[in-house]
Amino acid sequence: LVDPRIRIAARGSITRAGRVVIDHLAVDAPAALVSAKGTGEDWGAESASVVGTLDIPDLSRLHALTHQSLTGEGGVAFSADWNGSGADVRASAEFAQLSTNVATADILLGTSPKLRLAASFGVDGRVDVEQLILSGKEIAMTASGAFGPEAPGIDWRAQLPDLAAVDPSLEGALEAMGRLTGTPDEPAATVRFTLTEAAVAGYPVSAGQLDAVIKGLATQPAADVTLEAQIAGLPARATAELLFEGPGAIRIDPLELQLASLVAEGAATLKSTGAAVGEISASIGNLADLATFIGKPLTGAVDADLSLSESGGRQMAEVSVSAVGAGLPG
């Protein structure tokens, strides 16, 4: 990580018993993958501190470490104090010409996001976040609180003021908030998404709210999800239990959906290939309820069964439909 011309200056002492105390440590690596400058005090004593900066002139050169296709440049200023019970860390980071090569992330973060963090880390695994602030082009996020043994949790909040910047078919603003609780071995989280003055594919969405309770984050994540909204003036509700079964695979079982007189239920697995496999049954008690979506003022009722499968890497679907009194008025 460092340049061969790295310069280190140190001052300290060593006892006959072999105890080393570094009173001062300075590191300067001016032309490295990560250029570093800093000073340390009292290393080897009961407490120690370090203050420094990291300059990263080319983020793409860190691919082997981050496993992310990043480009751009960045800088980090940091300080840390250690004692017998843990460490206090403060850091701020700024980036320029940043690109993650992930379309949604690049839209949200922009090319010059900023991150500030003030936190302390206990030897028992407890993390106290005094302040975390992320400022991007289309996203703002804050967090504070405590995570770990006997800690109340870390609360976070994020705002996306313009969903159209992420997807042109969306309108309105999104606010997300949640809490991270538990311990590093057994973390859990709750999340709430709220839509304001929103529309999806031109259909207005009001009172839109999605709640999720997430468990097993350290092993096999699972979530209970509930969605409630008014879509084009019709009441909508959906519930699902999600289980992340492996790389890119999500099991949804059960899935229940209601939109006016439309009722659907079933189970499915979303595979890493993007295909879905499962069985879903649905009934529409009054087709007139869905005239806005169908595009015609139909009458009658419909029952349908949908079977989803994958063949040769392609999504396959079989549908059986039965209707009673279905047709156009008159």
List the helices and strands and how they pair.
Layout (H helix, E strand, L loop, with lengths): L6 E8 L5 E9 L6 E9 L4 E9 L6 H4 L4 E13 L2 E14 L3 H7 L4 E9 L4 E9 L4 E8 L5 E8 L9 E13 L4 E14 L2 E13 L6 E10 L2 E13 L2 E11 L2 E9 L5 E9 L6 H4 L4 E13 L2 E14 L3
Description:
With 330 residues, the protein is mainly beta. 5% of the residues lie in helices and 65% in strands. It has three helices and 20 strands. The protein has a 20-stranded antiparallel beta sheet.
Cα separation of the termini: 77 Å
Low-confidence segments: none
Q: Helix share of residues?
A: under 10%
The structural class is mainly beta
State the major sheet. Answer: 20 strands, antiparallel
Beta-strand content estimate = over 45%
Shape estimate: elongated
What is the total tally of β strands?
A: 20
What's the quick description here?
The chain has about 325 residues and is mostly beta strands. It is about 5% helix and about 65% strand. The chain has helices at about 65, 105-110, 290-295; strands at about 5-15, 20-30, 35-45, 50-55, 70-85, 85-100, 115-120, 125-135, 140-145, 155-160, 170-180, 185-200, 205-215, 220-230, 235-245, 250-260, 260-270, 275-285, 300-310, 315-325.
